[in-house]
Every structure is written in structure tokens, then in C-alpha cells.
Design a protein that fits this description.
Largest sheet: 5 strands, antiparallel
Radius of gyration: 37 Å
Helix content: 40-55%
Distance between the termini: 19 Å
Order of helices and strands: HEEEEHHHHEEEEEEEHEEEEEEHEEEHHH
Length: about 550
């Protein structure tokens, strides 16, 4: 009887000590990110039968479990991923909006000042002061255009750098999760119970990874995690991570694309596959805000230069004879990049009023050349490249040509963001810069006092010119500002909404799984009392044993 009583007392001491240890572990990790409160699970030992019935044999520690809800944790991870997406989107879009819309850095006031200066030359064609002012206003307009182009280019470079940083950080998380997968599977197979703290570490790393790039979790039967991108591409299978990388976009050398190393091969990922996390926000921002802004700003620069030069080159300078001079440097279009093929396919501007902010694909099937517009699938065809070029020139405002090589059957070429360099290439032409007398204000030869050509130039301010818009140059720039402002505002609203949802999801998750220090303090007292009671029972058992031994003596 004495050994049975002592044994029961020992089980009580062990159970109380385990409960105290679990409580202390909770208290110590109250502020550990990703930690889930742990609870000791106790079970009565199998009883012993006697003639009088079954006598208990104390208590055993069955296991230690964590208080966990997969639903609440998934909700928190999903909302945090979207919060991270819209946070970076809102920050960049807001910055672009402020740069484009600011009166000191934007284009609106510079356009107004330039056309105002042109009007002054039309009013007094022989005034050198008015001509000097027109050149100064042209240089100011070019400077604004160049600065905006450089700023947008700088943002694209920042996105490229951040993409590389995110990929590197994501790979670090993937390697650590893979290691934890291996350790968890081994420990669970050995002990039969999951290692709670390692599970918490793995889920916290997964949540941090999800803030960078949206992931889907599939749980294996051995306790391992398999992670996939939103489009189903495997990021991690068991303890084998597939690492992310960043490479130059083959169709736009200024941009970067994401790739995934799978089985030793590098697979380029479409932007649409990455819809969440900071990376998803950067890619969406680049696609929806930054590159369209670069295209539309470039189109204003290219269109303005061509429209102004077409009129200016037909007028006469102050000497009444000089003609054929451009006022602005004509910004160039980008050329095609090869998706399949080795020819150097180039573009040349033919009609800036028909340029569209669109992408194009050129293909040759051995008999017919086809150029397809990306947004609506409109296709131009020709039996020869020259015939196709004529049709494209009439409809899209640019011609096609070969600078080197030849196009073979099955070849395919892509033209992307072809006007994005326009703002940086905009400048006052060297032939007139610093030469105010060369401004072609006159519409008639030998009539230095004639300002009819300058008047026509000034009227460009109020004439719609660009394709797929009824706006003037100033109006087209306003459309660009308005679209950017709307997207920035929508992103800011979405960020605030997901910020609220993330906080609510965190509070819900913590209400179940978080550590309540008051509750743990109460548990500590309760388990301390249980330990003291078990120790007292052992003391009683020891006294009874001593008395039995004394009787025997």
C-alpha cells in the first residue's frame, strides 16, 4: 500500500511540475511573434483491480498541445498578405501622383507657360525678347519633361531593386521552412507528438513569407508543409525549396521578371500569378500605374515634338529665308524584342497622332506577316513586311523595318512600352537653341513681321491631337494625372480596409491562441497548490510507511 501511495504522489508531483513548466513557458513567450499558447493534457493512469473494486494509480501527462485554429491563422495570414500588397502599392502610387500633379514639378504649368510664350511671339514676331522667352520656356518644358521621365525611371529602378531584395528574403524563409519541415517530420515520427514550438516557428516564417509573396499551404501527413504560389507553382515540397530569382525582362530591358528554379530549370512567372504580398503590390503597381504613366508621358512628349516640328519646319525664320528647322528634338520609339527569332526589327515614327499606349506582337508563319495589338486583339496582316508596315503606319502611327537579319517562318517579336523613353528624349533642338532669330514665326518667305506660323503653333495648345483621346496635350496630361490619382486613392482605401481586417483577425486569433498573463498567473498558483498537495500526500505516505516499519521492529 505504501509503494502505491508513494507512486500516486510521484505522478501528482510530475503532473503539477509539467503544468507549472508549461505555464512558465507560456509566460516567457507572451511576446514571441507567432507563439500559440500551450496547454498540458492530463489523463488518469489505468486503475488496479482488487476484491473491493478498482483503485486509481494517479495521473499521467498525455501530451502538451497548443491552442490553435487553422481558420483564424489562415484569415490573419490572408489579410496581412493583402495589407502588405496595398501598402506598397499605395506608397508608390501616391508618390507618382504627387510628382505628376505638383505645380512645381508637374508638366501642366510648363505647358501653359510655353504656349503663352509662343503666343507672345505670334503677337510680336520681330521682338527678340519674346523669342528669347519662347526658347527659355521651351527649355523649361523640356527640363520638366526630362525630370518627370527620370523620376519615373528611378521608381522603376527602385522596384527592380526591391524585387531582388524580396526574392532573396523569400529564399531565406523558404530554406528555413524546409529545415523546419525536416526537423518536425523527424521529431514527430520519433516521439509521436508534434513539436509545438517548431510548428509555431514554421507558421510564423510562412506568415512572413506570405507578406512578401502570396502562398498557399498544403499540409502533409507527416506534419510537413508544402508551399505553392497562387498559380500553383511549387515553392516548397517537403524539405526541397524551389528558389525565386529576378532576371531582365527580355521584352523590356528596363524592367525585371520573376523566375522560379524548378528541377534545375528556370521558369519565368507571369505577373498575374503573384497577387498578394509586397511583391504582388509592386508588380501590380508597375503594370497598372508606373508603366502606363511612362507610356502616356512619353506619348505627350513624342506627339508634342512631332506636331510642333511639323508646323515649325514649314515656317520661316526672322531672316525670311531660313526654313525646314525643327524646334524640338524628336524622341524615338523603342524597337521590337525577339521572342523567337534573330532579326533586328526596328520602328520609326510616322504619325504621332495615332500612337497608342499598347503592346504589339509581330509574327510570321512563312507566308503572312501579322502584327497584333495586345489590348483588343486587332490584327494587321501583309504578304511582305513592307505591306504590313504600310498598314500599321496608317493605323498605329509607326512603321516597321529590318536593321539586320531576316524574319523566318515561326519567328515572333514583341514591342512593349515603346513610348516609355519619350520624356527623357525631349529637348529643344540644337539648330534653334540659343538662336532666337531662327524661330520660324513667319508663314511667308521674306516677311519677317509675319506671325502666322507662330499663331498656328500657339493654337496647338487647344487642338486635340493624340489617338484614343479627344484631349489636347494639356488635357492628355490631365487624364494621366486623374487616372493615377484614382488608382492611388483606391489603393489607399484598400490598404486601410485590410489594415483594419488584419488587426481584427489578429485580435480574434490572440483571443484564442494568445497568452493572457493574468490567466497564466492564476494557473501558476493553481498548479503550485496541486504540487504542494501532492508533496503533502507523499509526506503522509512516508509517515505511514515509517509507522509500519516501527511495528515490525
Amino acid at each position: 500500500m505504501a509503494s502505491g501511495i508513494l507512486g500516486i504522489g510521484i505522478t501528482g508531483l510530475n503532473a503539477a511540475m509539467g503544468a507549472v513548466r508549461t505555464t512558465q513557458h507560456n509566460i516567457a513567450n507572451a511576446n514571441t511573434p507567432g507563439y500559440h499558447r500551450q496547454v498540458i493534457q492530463l489523463a488518469a493512469n489505468p486503475p488496479t483491480y482488487s476484491g473491493a473494486g478498482f483503485f486509481g494509480n494517479g495521473v499521467a501527462v498525455a501530451t502538451v498541445t497548443r491552442v490553435y485554429s487553422q481558420f483564424l491563422d489562415n484569415e490573419l495570414m490572408r489579410n496581412q498578405g493583402q495589407q502588405a500588397r496595398y501598402e506598397v502599392y499605395s506608397a508608390y502610387a501616391g508618390q507618382i501622383d504627387r510628382v505628376l500633379g505638383d505645380k512645381d514639378s508637374g508638366l501642366g504649368s510648363a505647358l501653359s507657360s510655353f504656349f503663352g510664350a509662343v503666343q507672345e511671339v505670334a503677337n510680336d514676331p520681330t521682338s527678340m525678347a519674346a523669342r528669347e522667352a519662347m526658347l527659355a520656356a521651351g527649355r523649361n518644358l523640356a527640363g520638366r519633361m526630362n525630370n518627370l521621365g527620370a523620376t519615373l525611371d528611378g521608381m522603376l529602378e527602385s522596384i527592380n531593386a526591391e524585387m531582388s531584395s524580396i526574392a532573396a528574403q523569400a529564399n531565406t524563409y523558404l530554406r528555413r521552412i524546409a529545415d523546419l519541415n525536416d526537423r518536425i517530420a523527424q521529431m514527430q515520427a520519433m516521439a509521436g507528438n508534434p513539436p509545438n514550438d517548431l510548428l509555431d516557428q514554421r507558421e510564423q516564417l510562412t506568415a512572413e513569407l506570405n507578406k512578401l509573396v502570396n502562398v498557399t499551404v498544403l499540409r502533409g501527413g507527416d506534419g510537413s508543409y508544402n508551399l505553392y504560389l497562387g498559380g500553383g507553382q511549387p515553392l516548397l515540397v517537403g524539405n526541397r525549396p524551389n528558389l525565386l530569382g529576378v532576371a531582365t525582362d527580355p521584352y523590356d530591358s528596363a524592367s525585371r521578371v520573376l523566375n522560379l528554379s524548378v528541377g534545375g530549370a528556370s521558369v519565368t512567372l507571369d505577373d498575374e500569378l503573384i497577387s498578394g504580398g509586397r511583391l504582388g503590390g509592386l508588380l501590380a503597381l508597375r503594370e497598372e500605374v508606373l508603366q502606363p504613366a511612362m507610356q502616356d508621358l512619353g506619348r505627350v512628349a513624342i506627339g508634342l515634338a512631332r506636331a510642333f516640328n511639323d508646323l515649325h519646319s514649314g515656317g520661316y525664320a526672322l531672316d525670311g529665308t531660313t526654313t525646314g528647322l525643327d524646334f524640338f528634338v524628336q524622341p524615338a520609339l523603342r524597337n521590337f524584342s525577339a521572342a523567337a527569332g534573330s532579326a533586328n526589327v526596328v520602328t520609326s515614327l510616322t504619325d504621332a497622332s495615332k500612337l497608342r499606349s499598347d503592346d504589339y506582337t509581330l509574327a510570321f508563319d512563312g507566308m503572312t506577316y501579322t502584327l497584333t495589338r495586345a489590348t483588343d486583339g486587332l490584327a494587321y496582316t501583309g504578304a511582305t513586311l513592307a505591306a504590313l508596315s504600310a498598314a500599321v503606319s496608317a493605323g498605329e502611327g509607326f512603321a516597321l523595318g529590318l536593321a539586320a537579319g531576316s524574319i523566318n517562318a515561326g519567328d515572333r517579336y514583341v514591342l512593349r512600352n515603346h513610348m516609355a523613353d519619350g520624356a527623357r528624349g525631349f529637348a529643344v533642338a540644337a539648330a534653334v537653341n540659343g538662336r532666337p532669330e531662327r524661330i520660324a514665326a513667319a508663314g511667308l518667305a521674306g516677311a519677317p513681321g509675319d506671325g502666322s506660323n507662330a499663331l498656328s503653333l500657339a493654337q496647338l495648345q487647344t487642338e486635340p491631337y493624340l489617338a484614343d483621346t479627344t484631349a489636347t496635350f494639356h488635357g492628355a496630361y490631365g487624364v494621366l494625372i486623374g487616372r493615377t490619382a484614382n488608382l492611388a486613392g483606391e489603393a489607399d482605401i484598400a490598404f486601410k480596409a485590410y489594415d483594419t481586417l488584419s488587426r481584427q483577425a489578429f485580435e480574434n486569433q490572440q483571443a484564442l491562441s494568445g497568452v493572457n498573463l493574468d490567466e497564466e498567473a492564476a494557473n501558476l498558483i493553481r498548479f503550485q497548490q496541486a504540487y504542494q498537495a501532492a508533496a503533502r500526500a507523499m509526506q503522509v505516505a512516508s509517515t505511514l510507511l515509517d509507522e509500519l516499519l516501527a511495528i515490525g521492529r
